[in-house]
Amino acid sequence: MIIVMKPGAPRKETRAVIEKIKDLGYTPHTIYGKTRNVIGAIGDERGKIVLQSLESLPGVDRVVPILKPYKLASREVKPEPTEIRLAPGVSVGGRALLVIAGPCSVESDQQMVATAMAVKAAGAQVLRGGAFKPRTSPYAFQGLEEKGLRILRKAGDAAGMPVVTEVMNPMDVERVARYSDILQVGARNVQNFSLLKRIGKSKRPILLKRGMMTTITEFLMSAEYCLSAGSRQVILCERGIRTFEDATRNTLDLSAVPVLKERTHLPVVVDPSHGTGHSKYVPSMSYASVAAGADGLMIEVHPAPEKALSDGPQSLTFEKFRELMENLRPFIAAAGRTI
Ligand code: PEP
Ligand code: MN
């Protein structure tokens, strides 16, 4: 149920409603809006009718059921978009387009520092790089782990950029959060519910990738796991889904962007690198993502893609990334955004 407070209702009335929700055995999630506060009462669906009685409390405008299975993620609970601050001057979900760039995997100091400098100069705001890699084959490069985290942090600091990296295991959340500004949940872990619950307790923003087989509703239910664990900072990432098509690595579902933007207040970014699997298709799908309303892009960039330890074929060279960023400008302007 959502308890919508009257515009300008005093804080103490909101607090009284919160207390009452707790008394009734539900968990309140308060969203302090510009004009009015809204409180989501989350708990057992079956007894929710008792919450209707809150309508008689002072300051309450109305009590309405949340129709969608995802509650805190839905626009019903929070109509205005969520803007997440990632670092001083860097945020996602507002007017400015966010660009995250960097290699698939952290490989060395030189590779990371060179990439950080190049992508920053081209206009990217966040540096990426995997230290724990979810590889299909156990014989493939698994990532530099803690050493990779240290290299990533150092490169981010050298370039003055916040960093994002993947966490694969609930037990590693704290360790990764010590190094990384943003925690990524990979496509293969989108329904790893213990990881989602654990990461939802972290104070770090979460970059949640859509699974290759998750529907939009399931994807939002995964975000709901993080939100219900306490996080208010979940960024959704469309990265392609599995279809019969094999000309591209995945089928980048760009229609998910407007659907997600309609259903949720959370920011939505697109990863055209994993979405297509081929560097030559990355620019066009980046432009299309911006046109579709994405709040950001995540793009794999490597100093020498042919030597990359993972995802070389889909990684852009520095030069190609600079070109992409340049050609992106008219699309950013046409979408009414800035960078
Ligand atoms: C990645 O970002 O390098 C990655 C492994 O992505 P995904 O989980 O979308 O496959
Ligand atoms: Mn990759």
Task: Write up what this structure looks like.
The chain has 339 residues and is α/β, with parallel strands linked by helices. The protein has two domains: 2-64, Alpha-Beta Plaits (2-Layer Sandwich); 84-334, Alpha-Beta Barrel (TIM Barrel). It has ten helices and 14 strands. Helix 2 (109-122) packs parallel to helix 3 (145-159), helix 5 (193-200) packs across helix 6 (216-228) and helix 9 runs parallel beside helix 10. Bound molecules: phosphoenolpyruvate and manganese (II) ion (MN). Manganese (II) ion (MN) is lined by residues 104, 274, 300, 310-311.
Number of domains: 2
Count of individual helical segments: 10
Write the CATH fold name of the largest domain: TIM Barrel
Query: What is the rounded Rg?
Result: 21 Å
What would CATH call the class of the largest domain? Alpha Beta
Order of helices and strands: EHEEEEEEHEHEHEHEHEHEHHEH
Any idea what the CATH superfamily of the largest domain is called? Aldolase class I
- The total count of strands amounts to 14
Q: State the major sheet.
A: 8 strands, parallel, barrel
Query: What integer is the average pLDDT?
Result: 96
- Roughly what fraction of the amino acids lie in strands? 15-25%
State the distance separating the first and last CA atoms. Answer: 38 Å
Low-confidence stretches: none
Quickly give the CATH architecture of the largest domain. Answer: Alpha-Beta Barrel
